[in-house]
Amino acid sequence: MVDKFFDRPGGFCATHISLEPSIYYEVIELTEDLFSDINRAGDPSSLSDLEKKHLPLIDAPDSVKAGEPFEVTVEVGRLLAHPNEPGHHIQWIVLLGGSVTLAMVELTPVSTSPKVTVTITLDKTTRLRALERCNLHGEWEHSKEIKVL
């Protein structure tokens, strides 16, 4: 039975496992150092399960009128459900317009879902960037260009 799950940003996760009557610790080393950089999808036509669970997908119109409000939804786990439990969850989602922060939401495991909708306006064509952080698999990014007419 797993008693505790420890977040290890350096690429390690430790679980305290109780087995009656003995107790021992198991250290699991991640095969890739997912915390050393922002993770992005490799080949969009053949995503791995890890990528499907972690990409913060952006749902927004391809083009908008300058200065006119529109909705943007960022969702993690749309392609393959991401766990949402105390030991494995999405901690936050950030939406950027270029390098400017447009929205930032912290999430609580179990009680919240990793899906955020905000209303924004743009004055010029902009690449929207969505970032999220999984407590076990680091930060992930996905982007979409919005053309302003």
Total number of beta strands? 11
CATH topology-level name of the largest domain = Immunoglobulin-like
| CATH class category label of the largest domain | Mainly Beta
Which sequence of SSEs, written as H and E, runs from N to C? Answer: EEEHEEEEEEEE
Class by helix and strand content? mainly beta
CATH homolog superfamily of the largest domain: SOR catalytic domain
- What Rg is obtained from the alpha carbons, in whole angstroms? 18 Å
- Mean pLDDT, to the nearest integer, reads 83
Tell me the fraction of residues in β-strands, as a range: over 45%
Give the fraction of residues assigned to helices.
under 10%
Query: Which second-level CATH architecture of the largest domain applies?
Result: Sandwich
Multimerization state: single chain
- Helices, by number, come to 1
- Biggest sheet character: 5 strands, mixed
Task: State the strand order across the main sheet.
Answer: 5-11-10-7-8
How widely separated are the two ends? Answer: 57 Å
Number of domains: 2
Runs in which pLDDT lies below 50 for 5 or more consecutive residues are: 1-31
Shape: globular
